[in-house]
Amino acid sequence: MSVRTVSQLQKGEKAVIRSFSDRLMSLKLLEMGCVPGCEVRLDAVAPLGDPICINVGGCYSLSLRLNEASTIEIE
C-alpha cells in the first residue's frame, strides 16, 4: 500500500493528516496548524498546478507549494 499525500488530493476531496515525511518541513506545517488528526480539504489549484490551496480543519485556508504538500501524509 502506497502512502498518499496532500499533493495527490483532487479538488474538493477531504483527508486526515496522518504524519509528515520531512522533519524540517513538519515544524513549519505544525506552526501553521497542520497537525496529525486534522482534516484538510483541497479547495483550489493554481492554473499551472502549483501552488494549491487547502482548507485546514474547516477554519482557514492555507496556500502550499506541491513540494510542501507532498510531505504531508494522509489517510
TrEMBL record:
**Gene Ontology terms for molecular function:** transition metal ion binding
- Asked if the keyword Iron belongs to this entry, the reply reads yes
The answer to whether UniProt assigns keyword Nucleotide-binding to this entry is no
A Pfam family recorded for this sequence: FeoA
* Domain Ferrous iron transporter FeoA-like residues, every copy: 4-75
UniProt keyword annotations, A-Z: Iron
- Gene3D superfamilies membership: 2.30.30.90
Q: What is this protein called?
A: Ferrous iron transport protein A
Could you tell me which species this protein originates from? Answer: Dyadobacter koreensis
The lineage, from the top, is: Bacteria, Pseudomonadati, Bacteroidota, Cytophagia, Cytophagales
